[in-house]
Design a protein that fits this description.
Elements: H1 2-15, E1 29-34, E2 37-41, E3 46-52, E4 55-59, H2 64-77, E5 82-86, H3 92-95, H4 99-102, E6 107-111, H5 114-120, E7 131-133, E8 137-141, E9 144-150, E10 160-164, E11 169-172, H6 191-203, E12 209-212, E13 219-220, H7 221-243, H8 248-252, H9 259-262, H10 267-284
Parallel strand pairs: 4-5, 5-6, 6-7, 11-12
Antiparallel strand pairs: 1-2, 2-3, 3-4, 8-9, 9-10, 10-11, 12-13
Helix pairs in contact: 6-7, 7-10
Length: 286
């Protein structure tokens, strides 16, 4: 568990507001982003829940404390039971603590490729999925359908993007943290496939806003476009350095991205580790 807290602290450094901003990153709120569709959480971690005529669907519980707080927030909106919990992907900072939902009979769902991660890295606070899916899937409860979309390997290999049918809002966990560079050193993501996924999401019709797994309650599509452009700019800068014969330590001093990217949260803290991750992508194939 200590490792979870260390990773969470590093991530919070990447997404925290700039010094000119004043924000309690742990203050939790419930924001209705479409009829019956809610963004719940704080700047440090955020989930989606959907109220239907026949029960509630929620996503990532985050932790036992957060899940209990989210259950209380749901009760303020509806007396419907939680019927389903959907894991967006395998990382512990999103999937732990769901027992409160299991205790009321909720069914847990993830992509099937999450299961090997859960088995290889067990955690007492993880509720194992009851059901898995292999690709895109529609989950209908009452009057609403939650579309679960799989784009292949990107931020890991079992990420699901979600959208309540008929709304123009996506739930995109960790592929984009609005206006943030995010963590650059994570070993299980594929930078090229991540950029591909962002291009595919950008080309999708029918959405204009998204809820991220961290950050503000809802963000415009432009925030995702900015993250995609940042990643492409970083990858191009690192590749240019490699092709000009620079080794990793030399590269650090030559990475110079546009001002709009330097203003993204976490840039100064994470640009070196991000460049290192991309360096290994191009020189070692991972």
């Amino acid at each position: 568990m200590r490792l979870v807290f260390i990773i969470a602290a590093i991530y919070l450094a990447a997404i925290a507001p700039t010094r000119s901003q004043s924000l309690d990153i742990f203050k939790k709120t419930t924001t209705e982003v479409a009829p019956g569709v809610y963004s719940y959480g704080s700047f440090s971690a955020r989930s989606l829940f959907v109220v239907t005529t026949d029960g509630v669907i929620t996503t990532d519980p985050v932790s036992a404390k957060n899940a209990a707080d989210m259950r209380a927030a749901i009760a303020e909106v509806t007396d419907q039971p939680v019927k389903y919990v959907i894991y967006s992907h395998q990382h512990w900072d999103h999937v732990l603590g769901g027992q409160v939902f299991k205790d009321e009979g909720a069914t847990f769902i993830s992509h099937e490729k999450c299961i090997p991660h859960f088995i290889l890295h067990p955690n007492d606070d993880l509720v194992m999925p009851d059901q898995t899916i292999a690709g895109d899937h529609d989950l209908t409860v009452g009057d609403k359908t939650l579309k679960l979309m799989y784009f292949g390997h990107n931020h890991g290999d079992c990420m699901l993007v979600m959208q309540v049918d008929g709304t123009r809002v996506l739930y995109i966990n960790d592929l984009v943290t609005p206006y943030s560079v995010g963590l650059g050193f994570m070993p299980d993501y594929d930078p090229g496939e991540w950029v591909r996924t962002l291009h595919e999401l950008e080309a999708m019709d029918g959405w204009m806003q998204f809820i991220g797994g961290h950050g503000i309650p809802i963000a415009p599509k432009d925030a995702m476009v900015q993250r995609r452009r940042y990643m492409e700019a970083l990858m191009a800068a690192v590749l240019d350095g490699i092709e000009s014969g620079k080794r990793l330590e030399e590269l650090y001093g030559t990475i110079e991205l546009a001002e709009e990217f330097k203003e993204m949260r976490g840039y100064d803290t994470h640009i070196r580790r991000s460049a290192e991750r991309i360096y290994h992508y191009y020189t070692m194939g991972w």
